[in-house]
Fold:
Amino acid sequence: EIVVTQSPATLSVSPGERATLSCRVSKSISTYLAWYQQKPGQAPRLLIYNASNRATGIPARFSGSGSGTDFTLTINSLEPEDFAVYYCFGGTFGGGTKVEIK
Amino acid sequence: QLQQSGPGLVRPSQTLSLTCDISGDRVSSNVVAWTWIRQSPSRGLEWLGKTYFKSKWYSDYAAAVKGRLTINSDTSKNQFFLQLTSVTPEDTAVYYCARERAVAGTFDFWGQGTPVIVSS
Structure:
């Protein structure tokens, strides 16, 4: 069974700064990785699919990279609405990274 | 758009049944899969399984619920369903239906979520 590990668990960032989130998968999945954003009381929202493709309507400040077992989600110049929990999915979901206001 | 319905309270050992109504797509589309995912504080987000049509119907299930979970569909009503048997308090969670696009793991549309409590 694939194990997906996200780090850090919590990331404290000031608005306008960059956030870098990591996702590691226990075996190679090529680029079959997606990133999701979830806010309280809402369903997760697709941000990135196939490791680096932005979903429809997702701002350009969100970018994804990586292949094999190591993946990164970068959020440039954080906006107030970006503070949320982020999950990656590579066969199973990771435990999430909470991006909070510093 | 996906609209979920079903009970919010299920007794232990009973069967949890949820429905997901699809609008804007066909359950019989051969380029997507129809998926159930749940979320709880103890287990996080958990992919449960999916059903899809490629000349015939297929279903895949997560190992953790295999044997208890059935996902199927009704093409005449454009719906798909979750049935989870022999529920325990560990099955308490928010359940989501979602559409998975051609690239695996790409859940691009989600239902609103159904909170389910398993309790006597």
Summary: The two ends of chain B are 33 Å apart (CA to CA).
